[in-house]
Amino acid sequence: MLERAGALSVLMNSRSMLMSGALLIAAGLYQLTPLKSACLKQCRAPASFMAAHWRRGVFGAWRMGLGHGLYCVGCCAVLMLLLFVGGIMNLVWIAGLTLFVALEKLAPFGAAAVRAAAALLIAAGAALVVLGWLA
Question: What residues does each domain of the chain span?
Answer without folding.
Answer: 17-134
